[in-house]
Amino acid sequence: MDHMQWYSVYGNHDYEAPDWRCGCLSDPKQCHQVQKHGARHRNTSWYMPSTYYHARPLPGVNIEVVALDMNAADASKSCPWLVQSEGCSPAQCLRTLAEREVASARMLRERVAANRGGNLLVVSHYPTDFLLGRRPGGIDTIGLLRSHETRISYFGGHRHATAAHESGYAGTASIAPNRNWLTGGGGGWACDGQQGFLVGEIMADGRAVNVETVLIDDARCCTDP
């Protein structure tokens, strides 16, 4: 896949002790993966200018990528790992992740409004059920994802499974009239559900179509712990 940019987000295991500054200090430039923004491997490049950001991947095509840092949703588990490094206190970690969740929610609100009649690919480490009931900065993120004015395709992970939006798989709370997928993976280590990946097409008008799961037999990609 020559000349590809890989758009990514931080997840709970990225915020572990070796990268403790990322979870303890407000400045995202302290984050290891952010520091790799623009790095190239052969003909592909890494795109992560911050822990949350938006970008237009295809010049002239009406589609935008919006990457959210929603790790505050799992901070009660992530922050203890960081505290073990003695880099910061639990309160400082919780505060940093909460600040990024609020900033992500504000950015999502802005991008949904800016792309009325257009298309968004929204990515976060967490499935949509992690967002239920959360109102960072007073913003209803699930409500934004359910916009009737902007076409949204949402991709979340965290769980070790891959599932289509219509599958009813636990953790994929509906964002109708828009669509969302679970793209977890298990790192080749554990499979809580069937593994695989997603493929799809972006049309000239920016619509994401024919998005579907390609599921792989567990014997090929899972190793029991």
Automatic annotation (TrEMBL):
<protein>
    <recommendedName>
        <fullName>Calcineurin-like phosphoesterase domain-containing protein</fullName>
    </recommendedName>
</protein>
<dbReference type="InterPro" id="IPR029052">
    <property type="entry name" value="Metallo-depent_PP-like"/>
</dbReference>
